[in-house]
Amino acid sequence: xxxxxxxxxxxxxxxxxxxxxxxxxxxxxxxxxxxxxxxxxxxxxxxxxxxxxxxxxxxxxxxxxxxxxxxxxxxxxxxxxxxxxxxxxxxxxxxxxxxxxxxxxxxxxxxxxxxxxxxxxxxxxxxxxxxxxxxxxxxxxxxxxxxxxxxxxxxxxxxxxxxxxxxxxxxxxxxxxxxxxxxxxxxxxxxxxxxxxxxxxxxxxxxxxxxxxxxxxxxxxxxxxxxxxxxxxxxxxxxxxxxxxxxxxxxxxxxxxxxxxxxxxxxxxxxxxxxxxxxxxxxxxxxxxxxxxxxxxxxxxxxxxxxxxxxxxxxxxxxxxxxxxxxxxxxxxxxxxxxxxxxxxxxxxxxxxxxxxxxxxxxxxxxxxxxxxxxxxxxxxxxxxxxxxxxxxxxxxxxxxxxxxxxxxxxxxxxxxxxxxxxxxxxxxxxxxxxxxxxxxxxxxxxxxxxxxxxxxx
Length: 458
Ligand code: ARG
Known about the structure:
This protein has a two-stranded antiparallel sheet. It is mainly alpha-helical and 458 residues long. It contains 18 helices and six strands. The relative contact order is 0.10. α13 runs antiparallel to α14. The chain is elongated. The structure holds arginine. Arginine binds next to α5. Pfam families: ASL_C2, Lyase_1. One of its GO terms (cellular component) is cytosol. Belongs to the lyase 1 family. Argininosuccinate lyase subfamily. GO terms for molecular function: argininosuccinate lyase activity.
C-alpha cells in the first residue's frame, strides 16, 4: 500500500474499515477543480514571495495545469487510500512532476485548504442559485401579468374570504422569492472571504502574502483571524438556512398547485411534461413534481439541523467533525437547484383555468365584506354593519341563496341605507378593483407591483 502523506510518525497502516470510515473522497470529488484553483494561487504566491524558487513554482503550476486538463477529460481517478480530495490531488501531482510536488504544501494545511475549497465551491453555487431564482421570479411575474384581471377566491383558514386578483396571489410568491434572493446575496458576501494562509490554525512563520492569494482567487478579503478562518462553517449554515426558507416557500406554492389541480378546484392544469400517471388507475394525472418539491423540503431542513447540531459543541479550531459539513451542503445545493428548475418549468407550462377560477367566487359569500363596507361608508358603525350582514348571510344559507339574490325590497327592510347600486358593489370584479390601498389586490396595485418587479429583474 502507498504510504500516507502524513505517515512519518506511524509504524502501522490504518485499519481497512477505518480507512474507508475516515475518507471523504467518495463524496467530495466535485471539489477537485476548486482544490486545483486554490493550489495554483498558493503556489503562485509561494514563488512570488521567494518562499520557493520561481522555477519550482513554475514546475508545480505546470503540473497543476496538467491535472486540470486530465480532470476535465475525466482521466483522474480517486481512491480511498488517499483519504480526501487534497491528498488525492497532491498524490497525482507527485506522480506527474516528482518530488518537487512536495513543496506545494509549504505554509499550508489541509485545514485552510479545505475551507478555501468550500468557500470557492459555495460562491460558485450561490451564483447559480441566484440565476435560477431570477428565472423563477421572472416566470412568476410573467404569469402574474397575464392574470392581473383573473378573479380568484382569496382564502383565510382555507375558507373563501374575499375575491382577489390571481396576479396578486402569484406576486405574493414573487415577493417571498425576492427576499430569498436577498438572503443569498448576503450569504454570498460572507462566503466571499479567503481562509487560505490561516494554515493549520495559527498562521505561519513563512512570509506569505494573503492579499495576493485573495486577489488571485477573486475573494473580496482575507479572513482577519486564522482560528476563525479554519473553524467556522457559518457561511455554510447560512446557505442551509436560506435553502430551508426557500424550500418552505416552494413547498407552500406546491401545496397550492396540488390543491388547484384537484378535481374539486380545477383552477390550473399542469402540463403533461410535469405530471405522471398511475400504474393502475388509467384516468390519473398526478402532480408528482409539486409533491416531490414539497417532500424534498424535509431533507433540506434536515441538513440544516444536522450541521447546526454538529457545530454546537466544537472547541476551536479544526476538528474532524467538520468533514461532515459536506454531504448536507452538496445535497441541499443539488436539491434546491433541481427544485427551482422543475418549479420554473412547471409554472411556465401550466395553464390557468381563468373561468373556473372566477366562477368559484360567484356562488359564495366572499362579497359579504363589500356589503358591510358599503353600509359603513354610509355612516353606519362597522360593528352594526357586520351584524346586519351576518344576519343576511345566515338567512341566505338557510334558503340556499346568496347575497346577490336578495331583492332590493328585502335589502331595504334590513337597512334603508342599501340602494340599487348594491348589486354592482357585490360583484367580485368590482370588489377586487376597488381594493386599491397600497399593496392591495386592486388591479392598479397589482399592475404597479408587476411593473416594479419587471424593473427589479432587469
Ligand atoms: N478532509 C478534511 C475535511 O474535509 C480535510 C481537513 C483535514 N484536516 C485534518 N487535520 N485532518 O475536513
